């Protein structure tokens, strides 16, 4: 039994091989192939579609990642462009400032950015916070200017910040003179953006539109800083003095950078 068993399997294999070479077997195989061929082809196409779908989503994910990176690069380049434009603008401000002329100039200019409005309970008080302080050598009383125009005066100083009282503040005072009529007086802040020229004698005449500049006689501000221009003059018949409304030469609500004048020692 043990000897004939392998021989049986061998003979069966030879028989099957011989049958596979006959026309009948080839016809059977052809029929089977014809019957199952469409199913095999269908499964093949489905598998191809699935593979293509997988690669599509893989490529789409890659494109999404690439698009995100490109968006980040574009945002970075835009921010760099804005920074360069802002630097160019600040350089132009510096150039314009140092090209200005101030009579009897002796001292240094320190550029400062405006951080915001100062906190105060008084409605008539107008102050701004600057990003420079004692670290940069600022002192209380230092004049604050822009393009040769008077902005205000430092009233409080901290390590890296300072509080500037604007010329529009009701507590602000400065000795001034009108450029054409040479009328001396004192400028004071008023409500809103207007200034007030005080202590003008009744006999003195002012021309509407003429410039008002610092006289330097109070020792607080250099001579020649532009304060504003005469808008109108008011006078009471029985009063000894009259006052004038002055339009400021700058817009206090649109300040971004200013300069602190450091008097030379």
How are the strands of the largest sheet arranged?
1-2-5-4-3-12
Instruction: Indicate the overall shape.
Output: rod-shaped
Main sheet attributes: strand count, strand direction, barrel closure: 6 strands, antiparallel, barrel
Provide the helix percentage.
Answer: 25-40%
Q: Count helical runs.
A: 2
Distance between the termini: 126 Å
What do we call the CATH homologous superfamily of the largest domain? Answer: Rod shape-determining protein MreC, domain 2
Class by helix and strand content?
alpha+beta
Strand content: 25-35%
Query: pLDDT under 50 segments (min length 5)?
Result: none
Order of helices and strands: HHEEEEEEEEEEEE
Structure report:
The chain has a 6-stranded antiparallel beta barrel with strand order 1-2-5-4-3-12. The protein is of the alpha+beta class and 265 residues long. It contains 2 helices and 12 strands, in the order ααββββββββββββ. The protein has 2 domains: 1-99; 107-263, Beta Barrel (Thrombin, subunit H). Strand 4 (149-157) and strand 5 (162-166) form a beta hairpin. It starts with a helix and ends with a strand. It has helices at 4-20, 23-99; strands at 107-117, 127-130, 143-146, 149-157, 162-166, 173-178, 184-189, 194-201, 211-214, 226-234, 241-248, 257-263. The chain is rod-shaped and about 145 Å long.
Question: Can you give me a brief rundown of this structure?
Answer:
The chain has two helices and twelve strands. With 265 residues, the chain is an alpha+beta fold.
Strand and helix layout:
Layout: H1 4-20, H2 23-99, E1 107-117, E2 127-130, E3 143-146, E4 149-157, E5 162-166, E6 173-178, E7 184-189, E8 194-201, E9 211-214, E10 226-234, E11 241-248, E12 257-263
Antiparallel strand pairs: 1-2, 1-12, 2-5, 3-4, 3-12, 4-5, 6-7, 6-9, 7-8, 8-11, 9-10, 10-11
């Amino acid at each position: 039994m043990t000897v004939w068993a392998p021989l049986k399997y061998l003979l069966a294999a030879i028989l099957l091989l011989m049958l596979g070479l006959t026309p009948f077997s080839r016809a059977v195989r052809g029929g089977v192939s014809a019957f199952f061929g469409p199913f095999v082809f269908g499964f093949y196409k489905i598998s191809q579609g699935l593979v293509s779908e997988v690669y599509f989503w893989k490529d789409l994910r890659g494109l999404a990642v690439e698009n995100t990176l490109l968006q980040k690069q574009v945002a970075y380049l835009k921010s760099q462009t804005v920074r360069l434009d802002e630097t160019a603008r600040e350089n132009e401000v510096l150039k314009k400032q140092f090209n200005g002329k101030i009579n009897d100039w002796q001292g240094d200019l320190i550029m400062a950015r405006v951080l915001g409005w100062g906190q105060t309970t008084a409605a008539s008080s107008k102050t701004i916070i600057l990003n420079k302080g004692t670290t940069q050598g600022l002192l209380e009383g230092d004049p604050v200017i822009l393009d040769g125009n008077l902005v205000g005066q430092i009233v409080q100083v901290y390590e890296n910040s300072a509080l500037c009282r604007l010329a529009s503040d009701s507590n602000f005072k400065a000795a001034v003179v009108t450029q054409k009529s040479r009328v001396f007086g004192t400028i004071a802040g008023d409500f809103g953006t207007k200034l007030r020229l005080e202590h003008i004698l009744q006999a003195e005449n002012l021309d509407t539109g003429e410039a008002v500049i610092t006289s330097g006689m109070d020792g607080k501000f250099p001579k020649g800083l532009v304060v504003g221009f005469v808008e109108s003059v008011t006078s009471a018949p029985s009063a000894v003095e009259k006052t004038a409304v002055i339009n400021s030469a700058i817009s206090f609500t649109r300040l971004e950078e200013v300069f602190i004048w450091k008097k030379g020692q």
